[in-house]
């Protein structure tokens, strides 16, 4: 019996030694750990702060009143207003800091009646600090979270100070080359030392500039106040046409996943610059795409 026990012990030891010296076995264990870590990373973060909105430039051929009805039809409750949009069809009054008190009250009434709120406005590039102050006054009136803008370099300090005083952030937008902010590094330069300045990440324009949107989002981690949601038909082509989100060259699941990892707490504004006269169905399709793909995030 003693001999049998010793023999069994020897076999077990030999098997353990073989297992420990087996490279494929070690690799398998390592891969399992890596997979586990990757899964943890992929499932981190939250979408609780996500909200879908519409950049009113999408409906630029219509009045603010008409565009608001389209936003309502799409089932969206958040917008990014654009300065210069006529308030009513055929009227001379436009959305902006030159609106009369009566016009501002009228717009607020329209918003309240549909349960829609203005989260941001843009893209603006005020000519001087006095005009910036007017923009902030308007933003304060409507309770905006941020202003989407492309400020001049010599305005960075003043804009940051105003943003801090008003409690309203400034999100720098990226247009295609040769725009001053086409690359996230140029946005980071403006953010440096200016805690109230961040990014409005235009996913479509980054792709037009030949940049990977996910890489750009990672560079701006912690500084993204808003997103412009659009898709395009060709990568690395500054004049590439828009298409419905999900039907172009941009892969959105990694984009949504990265924003989730960052715990993005802001609005993704649909900015559909195509099919201008009849683009409401395109917008509705994009809203569904967003809802389905964000809900599927793990």
From TrEMBL:
Biased composition of type Low complexity is found at 27-45
What are the start and end residues of every segment in region (Disordered)? Answer: 24-45
Q: Which Gene3D superfamilies match?
A: Divalent-metal-dependent TIM barrel enzymes
Q: Which UniProt keywords apply?
A: Isomerase, Signal
> What is this protein's name?
Sugar phosphate isomerase/epimerase
UniProt entry tagged with the keyword Signal: yes
User: In what residue span(s) does the Xylose isomerase-like TIM barrel domain sit?
Assistant: 69-284
Q: Which GO terms describe its molecular function?
A: isomerase activity
- PANTHER family membership: HYDROXYPYRUVATE ISOMERASE (PTHR12110), INOSOSE DEHYDRATASE (PTHR12110:SF41)
Against Pfam families, the record matches this protein to:
AP_endonuc_2 (PF01261)
Using the record, list the residue span of the signal peptide; answer none if the entry has no such feature: 1-20
